[in-house]
Amino acid sequence: MRTLTLVALGYSVLLRSFELALSKHNERRLLEEGARVVPNDGMGLIALVHALWFVALIVEERRVGPSFSDAGLQIAFGALFVLAEATRFWCMLTLGRRWNARVIVLDGAPRIRKGPYRFLPHPNYVSAVVMLVALPLALGLVYTPALILVPKLWAVRHRIRIEDAALDQAAPG
Description:
The chain is mainly alpha-helical. It has 5 helices and 2 strands.
């Protein structure tokens, strides 16, 4: 396996681990404040698609290898990946203690409409889709994003419906 792919995978695993720890921390704090976890929030489907992404990326790298090696194109996809990650961090900072991997709502709390949420209702999900496509392409791997894109879009669409319904129900009224 190429060093660059190992570094990319290592970064992704470390970041997801940090995010899960932060999510658990925020969940505890929110529950102490009276928030509620939305049951059947689609997290299992999101996690399954993300795990499939890791497996597909490793298998493609080991069995097929890069399908293209155009440095300019790979740099462009790398820059798109960095932009998507920066947007995800911006989302996390904007949501602060309310950021979570699960759908957790605090009844009576208004929706966040600042930061990237001024421009899109769900910028974190857009960034996650872009990230899952852009990173493999930055490595010259084309089959992983082709395999992952439709299931990821389906999982995100499902999750957004659940999240919107929960947030609408919890909104001050």
